[in-house]
Structures are given as structure tokens and as C-alpha cells.
Write a structure and sequence with these properties.
alpha/beta; hydrolase; Nucleoside hydrolase; 9-stranded mixed β-sheet; hydrolase activity, hydrolyzing N-glycosyl compounds; Inosine-uridine Nucleoside N-ribohydrolase, Chain A
């Protein structure tokens, strides 16, 4: 991994790339926290046409995630992007079912929306978890006055793919549940989508989870190398990676070595805007966190940062009685599982090139609609 200081200096020396419009994009995420919007800013900075934002289950439930992203849109003056509620619970998995599996095969280091609820923390502004999928608790910057759309995220995704066949791109950075429901509801949906970039799909990382030395001061390796977006809904992950999208990009694992560093944080907030003022308060807690969602959006917004990838058949284990439940694996012909599909698995990126786009995007002003 590149030394953090070197990366920050290298990024500072690179001019921001002049981005052509990247296309029509739907960004699907769990919006888990008051600074979870950085991947949206990347897409805006790359002049993407944001058709809509969808909220899905993951680190928290979809309704609470929608409250976070709506409040940010208000703060940033980006009130022209519609927000849709997606899947609020997994296809099959439940709090109880996940706990039963963990009691046999070992506990997860992070349970996201399934972690035990704490009413005291909820009252203080913590996001609701456990068996409270419809509760919306206060958030630090205040609840939004903007409202989500009445149309469901699933219907919205299907409608956009039908309206713009072969043009829509999806960034999927939460659980895959909402996208899976769109696939099942409309058999033509996946074939109408130009590209999906997925935050998830780690392979060959089990040994790294046992490393006793944390990669940084925020997360332990058993958490960093845990494929939570797939673990919380393995069945949905399998539906999505098996679907006939025009291109499926697996961008989860490549993002693991790259963190929000103090240098990246300080360089970003050195330009004062309403957005960076918000980041200075709420993004500070992300220092030491991998840039999971951001790189997943980045490889779609500016694919020139990809320096190494390969085409592989890809699948997800959905055997509940298996210790590998929810884990990903790859294969080549003729050894691939039945119904698995070829994906683009990203192995390496130019991180300095990523930062030269990413940091200016966080400093941008998006109050005027560009499409």
C-alpha cells in the first residue's frame, strides 16, 4: 500500500481532471451517517446525470438512511435530486436468522442494521438498529423537511431502465436487496442497464481477517475484510451478480487498502464551502475508514483510474448451512458454476488519479442543476 503522506502529496500535485459527462446514474446506498454522501459528490463532480438516489438496507435501515441523505441535500442546496425508499429488510435474512447462523459459524465483527438496538443511544441521535426497521431517530444536523418520493425505489429503477435502455448506470454500495427486487420484478431490467458498480464481492481475504495488526486505528482487519454488504443479504447478492447486466463491475475489494487520511481530510476542508463546512464536522469521524463507497463510485465516474482488472465468472454462496454463506468466489471457464456470469473484477487503481478527481468534487458547488 502506498504511504499515506506520499499519496496525499502526489494528489496535491496532480491537476483535477476535466471530466466529460459520465452518463445517467442511479446511486443506491444505505446512507449510513451524516457524512455518507461523499460518493454522490464524486458523481456530481464528474458531471454525471443523477436520475435519482435510492436508499436501501445495510449499516442501517432504508428509512433512516433516506433521512440522512435528504438532510444533506438540503444543506448543500441540491434539492433537485429525488430520493426513493428501497428495500428496508433483506429478501430472506432476519435479525434472528443471522444470529442463529452466527451462533454456529462465528460472530460477525459488524452487524449493521441487525446489531442490537439501544433505546438510550437512539434518543441521543444514534441510528436505529435491531428490530426497529421503521423508526426514524433524530440525526445530529437535524431531520430534513424534504420528503422522499411516493414511488418505490424498485419501480423507479425499472422505469429509468425502460426509459433509457442501455444508458443507465447504477452504483450499488449498500446491500444488494433493492437491485435484486428490481431484477425479479422485471425480467428485462438487468439487460437494460449499461453498468452496475458493486461495493462488495471480496475474494481470498479470509487469511487477512486473522492478522492481529489493524490496518489502521479505526477498524480491525476482521472488520475491514468482512464483506458486509453481501453478508447481510446473501440471496440478494447472488441474484445481482447472476443477473445479465450489460456490464457488472466488482469494486469492493480494490478499495480496501485506501483510507480517509488526515491529509485527505485537511486538503478537502481547506476550501470553505457549505459542503466542506459540513464535512469538517461530520467527515472527521471517517478518518481511518476505507474509501469503500467512494472508490466504487469512482471507477464508474472516471474509469481511467482502473489500472488492472480481469474478466471472471463470479458467484455467491447462499447455502445457509455453510460456513461460507454470503462469501464470494470466482472461476474461469469451463469450471464456473451454472448460471454464473462474467464480471469485471477490479484489481488495481491509480489512487493519485482517484484523489485528483475526488477531492475537487467534494469542494464543488452543485446548487445549480447541470442536466
Amino acid at each position: 500500500m502506498l504511504a499515506r503522506a506520499f499519496v496525499a502529496v502526489a494528489a496535491a500535485l496532480l491537476p483535477a481532471a476535466a471530466n466529460a459527462a459520465c452518463g445517467k446514474v442511479i446511486i443506491d446506498n444505505d446512507w449510513s451517517g451524516s457524512a455518507s454522501y461523499t460518493s454522490l459528490l464524486e458523481l456530481l463532480g464528474a458531471n454525471c446525470t443523477i436520475l435519482g438516489i435510492t436508499s436501501t438496507i445495510g449499516n442501517l435501515y432504508a428509512y433512516q438512511g433516506a433521512a440522512h441523505i435528504l438532510r444533506f441535500l438540503e444543506i448543500a442546496g441540491i434539492d433537485y435530486i429525488p430520493v426513493y425508499i428501497g428495500a428496508n429488510e433483506p429478501l430472506i435474512n432476519t435479525v434472528e436468522r443471522s444470529a442463529a447462523w452466527q451462533s454456529v459459524f462465528g460472530a460477525f465483527s459488524w452487524d449493521g442494521a441487525f446489531q442490537p438496538d439501544n433505546a438510550t443511544l437512539d434518543a441521543e441521535g444514534s441510528d436505529p438498529t435491531g428490530n426497529n426497521p421503521f423508526e426514524i431517530t433524530p440525526i445530529p444536523e437535524g431531520l430534513p423537511t424534504m420528503k422522499w418520493q411516493n414511488e418505490s425505489a424498485v419501480d423507479f429503477m425499472i422505469a429509468m431502465a425502460r426509459m433509457y435502455p442501455g444508458e443507465v448506470e447504477i452504483v450499488a454500495a449498500g446491500a444488494m436487496t433493492t437491485v435484486a427486487l428490481a431484477i425479479k420484478q422485471d425480467p428485462y431490467f438487468a439487460g437494460n442497464v449499461k453498468k452496475i458498480s458493486i461495493q462488495g464481492g471480496y475474494v481470498d481475504v479470509n487469511l487477512k481477517q486473522t492478522d492481529p495488526t489493524p490496518s489502521n486505528s479505526t477498524f480491525t482487519n476482521d472488520d475491514i475484510y468482512a464483506d458486509f454488504n453481501f453478508f447481510i443479504d446473501p440471496e440478494a447478492a447472488k441474484v445481482v451478480v447472476n443477473a445479465p447486466f450489460i456490464e457488472t463491475v466488482i469494486a469492493g475489494q480494490v478499495s480496501i487498502p485506501y483510507f480517509v487520511t488526515p491529509e485527505i481530510f485537511n486538503q478537502t476542508i481547506s476550501v470553505v464551502t457549505p459542503i466542506t463546512s459540513n464535512l469538517s464536522t461530520y467527515w472527521a469521524g471517517s478518518i481511518g475508514t476505507p474509501l469503500w463507497d467512494e472508490i466504487t463510485a469512482g471507477v464508474l465516474a472516471y474509469p481511467e483510474i482502473i489500472t488492472k482488472s480481469r474478466q471472471v465468472y463470479f458467484d455467491v454462496d447462499v447455502a445457509y448451512g455453510s460456513i461460507f454463506y454470503g462469501r464470494s468466489f470466482v472461476a474461469i471457464a469451463p469450471y464456473q458454476p451454472a448460471n454464473s456470469r462474467n464480471v469485471t473484477f477490479i484489481e488495481q487503481i491509480n489512487f493519485s488519479g482517484f484523489l485528483s478527481n475526488f477531492i475537487p468534487a467534494l469542494q464543488g458547488n452543485y446548487t445549480t442543476k447541470r442536466w
